[in-house]
Fold each of these.
Amino acid sequence: MARILGIDYGLKRTGIAVTDPLQIIASSLDTVTTNELMDFLKKYIEEEEVEAIIFGEPLHKDGNPTHVAKAIYKFIKKVNKAFPNLRVELQDERYSSRDAKNIIFNSGAKQKKRRDKALVDKVSAALILQEWMQANKW
């Protein structure tokens, strides 16, 4: 089987998560600056077999897209063009950053580590991917 990538897209930084080849576990992978994201994806997909990319869709409590959503939709068009055989889907990411911060806090991480926004982005990406897997795989 191929891996599935999870993306917590941000205007500055993007968190990336990935499944194992059997698509059982979602794990944090990396955080990259958003302007380097396409290069990262090209390199990763060249090295690993990837079946799909799941983007977190930032929505307000009422379900309407946030201001970041427009940038995500634009980037997804680029991904679809660059990787036409790859499935691209959206997963509601409401509260993923808050939940990631809680996970990091409850892990016993020191305050400096809890303030690491790159870590929060990676954990958020894993949560987005895990929620998608729960809804679509398990």
Amino acid sequence: MNKKSRKFIIVRAILLGLAVVAIAFVTTWNLYHKEEAKKDALRRIRERGYLIALTDKNTLNYFISRGAPMGYQLDLIQSFGKFLGVPVKIIASNDLSRLNYLLEYNAADIIALNLPLTSEGKKLVRFSDPIGETRLVLVQRKGKESGNSNSAAVKILKDFPPDTVYLRANPFMTSLYHSFLKKTGKKAILKEVADISEDELIMQVSSGRIRFALIQENVAMVYHRNYPNLDISVLAFPMFKYSWGIGLHSDSLRKKVNEWLKEEKKSGDLKHTYLSYFQNNRINGYFRSDYFSVNGNKLSPFDEAIRIHSKLIMWDWRLVASLIYQESNFQTGLVSAQRASGLMQLLPETAVKFGIDSVATPAKQIAGGVKYLRFIDKLLPEEITNPVERVYFVLATYNVGIGRVLAARQKAEKYGRNKNLWNRHVDYYLLHRSKKDPVGKPDSAEIYPIDYKTEGFVDDVVSRYYHYRNLIK
């Protein structure tokens, strides 16, 4: 054997060895991720410290009205979060395939939507016990449209004309859509649209932009009260049950959801939450409000001033808006028992220091409040370098004062926690203080009296800000 042949054999052997190592590595890597995917879902939530829920954006499930985050699914998922004892973060999208993708790859824990219990859905998620039931209806305009004798409303599906029916792209409802198609003698042309809400489809039917849409009946009934020119009488699919969706790899979270549902049904809270959105006339008032997230991007009459003055502290204007809502609900004339006043509820001595008097306009109140936020930021130690953590410390100081926050930092350091982290570190030493021994070690102490307001203040402002980010561009 010549040198060239020997060299070729050696190189081939090396390449073969590398290939074997690479295959082994890939196999091990895939097995690792499969095992990670199977990791107990509850343990993953506990380690992370919060629940990640997926839902969509519309008039019923998740929206903002006059600065307040609201919605049927939001109320339910927050109730479940309290049941688990963890806060909730929401990821919202009207693209249901994207939501399912996020759940499949463990970027979220649960899909909080009315998902029909279908065979195709069981391949995608583990369903919780049923939350409710509804039907699928054809949404169309009443009577004949101007001058078109072929546009009379459809009364029975077998007489359906060769026309397009718009519906949300929904991997959980494929069999329901196909059943409707068969009932029309396959004359309907199904047009699936992604990243669109049922609100938008119904409004497009009402305005005449499209002729037909398939919508869940309980949703269509809410909109029918606001759009009386709609006909929702034609049944597209009979009664079906709907549930939430949990990842396929772990059953622990599904069991907890079912425990919570059992309690909600027994107490009547589930029914009450449903009626407060699906059979409440106040929903109609939201449609006519300028400060309704489905209609646009306004939070308050002061949005422009908040945008302008937020630049002074380099904060997202929606974060400042959330702080203002926390302090005053966007009401200009409020005066607290401690004499704090205005949109940003500044004490008289603070207001004067930052150029606010009794006749200051809302814009001047906002400008003064933001100057005070910047002043606080400069007071805080530079070693709090993480910008998110720094926001937490500024908000806490705005609420309870620099002295208490700095004292809590010292105590956190003394007892082995990180004085530059807020959640579960410095905030712990503000909230856990004994009445008898406020400066003593607090680990076994009761929570400080209820008037010690930092409990929930920072979390409320930040949580609302994330809702604003989800729903206000």
